[in-house]
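Narrative progress, year one. The postdoctoral researcher (J.K.) led the effort to move from monomer predictions toward full complexes, under supervision of the PI. The following entry was the first complex the group processed end to end, covering 746 residues in total.
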Amino acid sequence: MKVKGCHFETIWINPDNPAIVQIIDQRSLPFNFRIEDICSSEEMYVAIRDMHLRGAPLIGAAGALGMYLALLEFKGNKVPLEYVASKATYLKSSRPTAVNLSWAVEREEREIKETGSGGERSKQEVVEVARRVALEIIDEERTNCLKIGQHGVKLIEELSRRKHNETINILTHCNAGWLACIDYGTATAPIYLAHEKGIRVHVWVDETRPRNQGARLTAWELQQHGVPCTVIADNTGGYLMQQGHVDLVIVGSDRASAHGDIVNKVGTYLKALAAQDNNIPFYAALPSSTIDWLLSEGAMDTPVELRDGDELRIMEGMNNGRITDVEIIPAGIPVLNYGFDITPARLVTGIITERGITPANKKGIFTLFPEKT
Amino acid sequence: MKVKGCHFETIWINPDNPAIVQIIDQRSLPFNFRIEDICSSEEMYVAIRDMHLRGAPLIGAAGALGMYLALLEFKGNKVPLEYVASKATYLKSSRPTAVNLSWAVEREEREIKETGSGGERSKQEVVEVARRVALEIIDEERTNCLKIGQHGVKLIEELSRRKHNETINILTHCNAGWLACIDYGTATAPIYLAHEKGIRVHVWVDETRPRNQGARLTAWELQQHGVPCTVIADNTGGYLMQQGHVDLVIVGSDRASAHGDIVNKVGTYLKALAAQDNNIPFYAALPSSTIDWLLSEGAMDTPVELRDGDELRIMEGMNNGRITDVEIIPAGIPVLNYGFDITPARLVTGIITERGITPANKKGIFTLFPEKT
């Protein structure tokens, strides 16, 4: 999507120097737009661990490119498989709970192993394999988001027709935008495609306390691409729905059950309740890799990450042109910070996947993905 | 309630110098606890306008004591009624939409007028009248909150019995605490009384974006009084309810219809939806002065205040021991900031008033207040 009028993705190999991977350093957004050079697997480890980049699809791509850098930096012509395995373990440990990271790094490891037999591989060959696999992963993620957009945009087109081309107001929570992916995003993909088709859209962006990903990332990326948007406190969406100012809710998902339960950023459930109470369609947009096919009893018992209370206590912002932290809740007051909540399938109008839109139930989901039965 | 182990109310006449009114300057809470001397009607005007104090009952008391100071500072023995009227107009303009402010100031004006005939009144006499009326208002507000507490505590006692004296977890939104009143508060009064009776209670305090009254005021006052509490992001309450960690929701109200619709801080409606979805009782605690008896069609069409977007953009906190503002949303990104939302009566289990608890409907409310039919 566009930043300052130019097309960007979130991660790429520097075309002028293929030994350097470049990323958008998301820590300083929306205050500064900074491209960071990642010149070694160690630097990639730090970038993933310290969240210079975040979002499941993007972390996977970063892990794969981390393997590419690890092979490039190997000194010698023959790379031992032990080196490949140790680098894979190292990179996976940068964010141990990120499923996409292990998946992408293990795919690299497997394909490298398959280039020959014995305990070593030609460096030239495995660098090329690692590069190809990383670019394949990037391409798959980009394509999945594009397809989610192509399916989801039909919902917006239909609403636009019904409202006689008046502006369609879409509410979203957190950042399920292109900054979390390679391009397009998941929840935002239908919105970007609608905007490009000339459909009038406006996005209500939930601030998304405590980490403010909506206010910091979603609003920034929409604005840079020219999509009209407005940041609201997380508390405000219910009132906007009561007043008829929301036509559609689209959120992303961190994990979904094959029954259509949606695990997403805490607060999603409250918006789903309000959408139902006001007869507003509520969709989750997600690539099928997000679906946990083993959750046979739904996702309601998913253990939810309890995160550091400092995310709630400390607020980062600009003061006199400098990024500054302030403590907004004194240390003596207890805080509790759950990362996610679970929106039961009964509140979800539908799920937008790369293969199409399905009702949020087992029958619909397995009809789209019959190979998973 | 207690601050640093001593009993405080929010406003009082200095016992050592009755020409000085003292208040808790709420702007610096929870970072600093500061008593402010208010020595003139001008200083009271500024204190109300700039929100050194806030909360409907407290603003009313402050307006009445502002009239007392205005009469005290009059130079001469005979006070013209024009002076009284002009000071009343002046004080009421400090927060023109605060219903309690006009009500209290007009009550002062009326009682002063009634002390005699003609265009002047004895200064000594009207100062005494203004003092008496202000103390009456303070006493009435204190008593109303205490009664709300005495009725509401029965709900908590009943839950405690059913849970075999396990801790009762109560969720509240915004600050409907003693800092908004004289003492006890409205939503907090049942909680303080339960705590004093030795019932184990714990309060989930919604941060309450964008002004953070929960994190800044409610958590502070509960903690100072020794009531266990935990601050959560506004997004978190739904998940806690899903997990069975909330036994009861009590909120205050800025305005209620005689049908039981509740206008309260934006975000209240979302918690009421989640409470209903999880079969958790949801109560509004309010003095009957909050009920708008003329809202014959319910409160759903109440115009809701659109507030300054800077409340969302700018965050105040501590940095290196100094209260510091940081800009958390860049100026170029639009924001929208509604102050309230409306919780329809169908989501409200009951209303706790100074006369007792009633279902949130016309029949129940008029049964408690038959003189209003």
